[in-house]
Amino acid sequence: MSRIDDYRQVAPPGAVDIILKLADRVRGRRFLNVTGGRVGGGAAEILRAAVPILSELGVDTSWEITGGDPSYYATARALQAALEGAERVLSEEGLARWVEMNRVNAKKLALDADLVLVHDVQPASLVTHRTDGRWVWRCHFDCSAARPAAWSFFRQLADQYDAAVLSLPGFEGRLGIPMYVLQPSIDPLSEKNRALSTRELTDILTSLRVARDKPLLVQVGPFTPRYDPMGVVNAYRLVKRHHDVRLVLAGTADEESERVAIRDDLLQAAREDPDIVVLELPAEAHRQINALQRAATIVLQKSVRAGFELGPAEAMWKGKPVIGGYAGGLAQQIIPNVTGYTGYTVEGAAFRIRHLLNNPELIPRMGAAGREHVRRSFLITRHLTDFLALMIHLAR
Amino acid sequence: MRTTTRPFVFLGCVELRQTLDVHALDERELMHRLEEVPADSVFFHTFGYFLRHRPFTTAYGNDFARWAALEIGDRALAERLAVVDPFAFATVEALREHLVTILQDHLRARSGDLRLEFDRAFHFQRSHLVEVELGLAATTLAEFRVGLASADESAIYLHTVEARARSGRRAGDFAQWLREALELTALAERFERIDPYLTTLERVRGRLLSLVDRALEEERA
């Protein structure tokens, strides 16, 4: 487990000292996080790193999860999808059942704390059983285009919180409570982001059968239309006319029919071109993802619709220029012409890749700028600072 | 060496951002919303830019100019907004008035506005600063130099930008202390003349340190 002092070697100068000073001001206060599960999703990844560190700093930090029967999970998933803008059927009975299951959860959980941070939708109705302390709804997704009926239902719950926390300005729906902005972060000492030795890197790439005999273009992300992997293949093909490069697409299909169809198309493309490598890797394959990002010459994140994907931050931390779509948090992470490029089209992505390959001196320069940008803005140390500042601010 | 009984206490700060759920999808809307939002929001998007864009100086001195250039693609407006030096205004309200006047004047010459999609809108925000004692204090110029050199970068922002622009301490905390506590009027005036516009906080720190070094040498001579 990482200790806060370990972060001195990677965080900006003074950042750890600021954290220690802030933590002193909230020492002994109770900080409870409630999520729908302990794996998957941005919340879990952040809390896995943040909870032990905050506890070590003297903040009484805990992490609870809610659970229920299959209909509970199904309704929570459908409600969140509707709040993200998808069309879903939500029955009154299903919603009532979800609220009722959270009433049962509230009885089981110790919800007394100075700050209760409830993440996303599944546990959100716990707020109707709030006792003392400040309650904050942490929304990790973009709910600016929520389905009206779903939002009308959910807003009655959300307005019972003292505040909401969003990942980006513009992700908000209409609420009558203050809405703060805390951008997500990466843990530089986690398996996904820690430094790898040359030996480790070689071993992992060998096991994945990824050769490094030519420049590598890498995209990590699920095989879904949202990540546009076929667009990446087409951009690679445009580049391939001029440069001998290899494309690695790493992601999952999760046996969902739409994703499986995309994966099959990708595998077909790989059969036709040995320089296209398609790897089915689960999101938990942290060491492999780490190695692929480190081996990359250029990292792609050609999402066409995104929440706050942290792929660019992970890649920039590894000193790689990133060419991303113009969507959600990507535009926040990538500083155009400094740490990479954002674009809208397949041709635009190919143009930027060619530009970098034709001007290779830009690659390390952008990589270094990207690493510094992430060090300042997207490391867990900044996130810890935000958590502590929120605790102090809300206690005023 | 002059000593004071009123030590300078270095404070850092952490910015907690708040979104106001106020958005502009085109330049005209930007002008109208800019007239209405709290002064704290105007501060956030102008002076606050220096805290948030620490490692990189860019061609845009505030969020409005950056949005006009990158999202609207109106380079003329971006240039007009970028050259507005927020430190040249006595109050945030005067700065707001000037920005609105620029937008109004610019829009007179335009027939139609480009309307953006929501995810590229200008999202108005404000911030709350949480101050942090850094455990650094000075009673002499030499101690002040040590503190200035080692304080977190946010201290430079808090004691220069924030103090001057939002807290009404027009000279800035450093200059005020040098003048009132150490009676170093000439050095205080040199501190006041430092231009924090369109540069990084680290460069501001570097310039302040070189002024202190010069004063220490003069004192020794």
Description of the molecule:
- The complex is a heterodimer of chains A (396) and B (221).
- Chain A has 396 residues and is of the alpha/beta class.
- Chain A has helices at 15-25, 41-56, 70-83, 92-108, 148-158, 198-208, 229-240, 257-272, 286-295, 311-317, 330-333, 346-358, 362-377, 380-394, and strands spanning 30-35, 60-65, 115-119, 134-138, 163-166, 179-181, 216-220, 246-251, 276-280, 298-301, 322-325, 340-343.
- In chain A, helix 5 links the parallel strand 4 (134-138) and strand 5 (163-166).
- Chain A starts with 14 loop residues before the first helix and ends with a helix.
- Chain B has eleven helices and two strands; from the N terminus they run βααααααβααααα.
- Chain B has helices at residues 27-36, 39-46, 49-52, 63-72, 75-82, 92-108, 141-150, 153-165, 173-180, 185-193, 201-220, and strands at 3-24, 122-140.
- The A-B interface holds A 12-15, 17-18, 21-22, 144-145, 166, 169-170, 172, 174-175, 178-182, 326-328, 335-336, 338, 369, 372-373, 376, 385-386, 388-390, 392-393 and B 12, 14-19, 21, 23, 54-56, 70, 118-121, 123-125, 128, 130, 132-135, 151-154.
End-to-end separation of chain B in angstroms reads 12 Å
The low-confidence parts of chain A are none
Low-pLDDT parts of chain B are: none
Shape of chain A: globular
By CATH reckoning, the class of the largest domain in chain A would read Alpha Beta
Spatial shape of chain B: elongated
Oligomer: heterodimer
What structural category arises from helix and sheet content of chain A?
Answer: alpha/beta
Radius of gyration of chain A: 22 Å
| Average of the residue pLDDT scores of chain A | 94
User: What pattern of helices and strands is seen along the backbone of chain B?
Assistant: EHHHHHHEHHHHH
Largest sheet of chain A, order of strands side by side? 2-1-3-4-5-6
Provide the structure class of chain B: alpha+beta
Largest sheet data of chain B: 2 strands, antiparallel
